[in-house]
Amino acid sequence: MSATTAPAAAAPVAPATGGHVEVHGVHKSYGTLEVLAGVDLEIRPGEVTVVIGPSGSGKSTLLRVINHLEKVDRGFVAIDDALIGYSRRGDTLRELKEKQILRQRTQIGFVFQSFNLFPHLTALENVVEAPVSAQGRRRSEVEPEARALLARVGLADKADARPRQLSGGQQQRVAIARALATRPKVLLFDEPTSALDPELVGEVLDVIKDLARGGTTMLVVTHEIGFAREIADQVVFMDAGRIVEQGPPADVLDRPQHARTRAFLEKVL
Ligand code: ADP
Ligand code: MG
Q1: Range 49-61 burial, b when 16+ CB lie within 10 A, else e
Q2: Quick one: signal sequence residues (predicted)?
């Protein structure tokens, strides 16, 4: 190494570039119920895709298969050309070991409707946990980043609070900081504001908008249509396990081509 080599830059608290997500021919059934009936979706690096659709249409299942929280029956998910949950040898796919899956999941931040914070851990400990336990990073290195992430979501002063001492909006912001802590390439949000009192929705949407501007690849399931119009590069309408319509927000939300999309939008707008 030459003496003129620049020192490594300080670790960023969020990824500089997002990953490229490919969902290809994905089928998923529970018993006889086909929940994903052949889903193809591409999200280009740094783009924000908003998924809308009626309850039971398969939106959460789509997010969960991307994260390998659910296994696909057919098809595959890849991020930056790496298969999620499997390794390929010739024509055969082999499921990764649990530890490898956990490690792979650190590339994908997941924010749940119900926050899902560890109730016995402080806000700071919630954010520190995955980088240390799943990525094997040193706590001393992770902690300053975790504090910076809490500051980024407006909670610098809540590092030592436990979830029950926080409002729903604050808990969800901790959950977002936690999702960012592993420096994921992709962020998945499953109705992140649906469990919040109406007056707390805005503070969470503001944080997500801020992230959307930062170049992270995002997939957001939401019923907040105004928000979708603001942040989405593409909007996807799902019904009965299929993508019925997709395109720029101005097309899908304002000039929907399909009767089912129109019927859905009339209900939620
Ligand atoms: P959405 O998020 O669009 O409301 P989901 O993906 O949660 O839809 O669910 C789609 C369908 O799959 C629903 O009918 C739901 O009841 C069913 N489903 C989801 N998860 C399971 C499961 N683990 N076992 C059985 N059925 C499930
Ligand atoms: Mg859902």
Answers
A1: bbbbbbeebbbbb
A2: none
What is the distance in A from the centroid of ligand 1 to the CA of 60?
7
pLDDT > 70 fraction of the chain, expressed in percent and rounded: 94
From the CA of 240, which ligand is nearest?
A: 1
Q: For ligand 1, which residues put their CB under 6 angstroms from it? A: 30, 33, 35, 53, 55-61
> Which numbered ligand comes closest to the C-alpha of 37?
1
C-beta separation of 76 from 66 below 8 A: no
Which atom of ligand 1 is closest in space to residue 70's alpha carbon?
23
Distance between CA atoms of residues 63 and 58, nearest Å = 9
Compute, in angstroms, the gap from residue 71 CA to the centroid of ligand 1. 14
Q: How far is the CA of 56 from the centre of ligand 2 (A)?
A: 7
d(CA 204, CA 193) in angstroms, rounded, equals: 7
The model carries a pTM of: 0.93
How confident is the model over 86-135, as pLDDT tens digits? 998 888 889 999 999 998 999 999 999 999 999 999 999 999 999 999 99
